[in-house]
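Illustration 12: Exo-alpha-sialidase.
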Amino acid sequence: MTNKKNAKGSGFARKGEMLLMVGTKKGAFLFRSVDDRRTWKSSGPFFRGREIYHFTYDRRNRILLASVSSNQWGPTVAISSDMGTTWRESTSPPRFPEGSGLSVTRVWHITPGTADIPDRIFLGVEPACLFVSEDSGETWTVNTAMLNHRTRNKWQPGNGGLCLHSILTDGRSNDRIHTGISAVGTMFSGDGGRSWEFQNRNVSADFFPEAIKYPEFGQCVHKLVRNERKPDVLFQQNHCGVFRSRDNGKNWTNITSNLPSRFGFPIALDASHNPRVYVAPLEGDFSRIPIAGRFSVWASDNEGKEWFPLNSGIPEVSYYDVLREGMKADGEDPCGVYFGTTTGQLYQTRNGGDTWSSISDGLPPIYSVEVSAI
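Figure caption equivalent — predicted structure in token form:
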């Protein structure tokens, strides 16, 4: 796999180009392909030495968006309209209101809104809360219904913190929003964020006593995704297994089935053609290393009834793992899937996972991977 390097962005994007956005511990990297993902040209790092928990692209407005953390200045959102040549920070970064007793410590996730509200963008932060921008990321407003939720004072963090890391919009209605919070679970709003309810039915939290194994909230969802072609179908990789919902999150079914482990962080979905779900199992929540010392992606073509490994091209000895934002599918035909590791390897498949190849080796620890066609 050819990877050509360039320290700066190119300033424009071509129709038919594929973008791969990689957020790392030491900056953001942009990879671009114009030959059906055969070769990639990289630029960056942008924000050298700063943690980038999420780096994504808003196709509606053709802008790059990055969550940028600084020990000195705190977290903010950076925006580029020219493919990384120049950047500007939000004029009003996400901040909790005075008197709340809360401070934003990390920006975990950025999600562009639906196509018919082109300037709306959602943001998930730590401590867990939802923010929204109505001006393409220039200013941010906290969602007061989530901030003041009746259960907030009982929310507990997962190992990575009390973070809102997944935001799912619904193209059928701008009022429908799902969020994934560790370790609170799935929350749903059907009225545009004016109120929130938990959607954790049948999702176990067996780190609690047996009597409260299925609580109203407290589940540790690691990542949440939606099948855009069948939007009532949701999947989640959870601390306690892989789960599927066929009724827009109201009820969940454990689909861990024949996976070698229930534990993992990322989950990706190719919903454009032949629906395939991808996960990356780890030994468990204590060691958090690949099973038998080899990292493997596992996939299902029947919504989790059966799973099979896809590891051709991945080294037989590979003790790295992939974080919750670290694996994405592009929805092309055939499907491309990409994952970035905690030791800086970036891999891809152009055939749905049949074979894997390296795009880049030697990046800083990778926090997030996003992919988008222009």
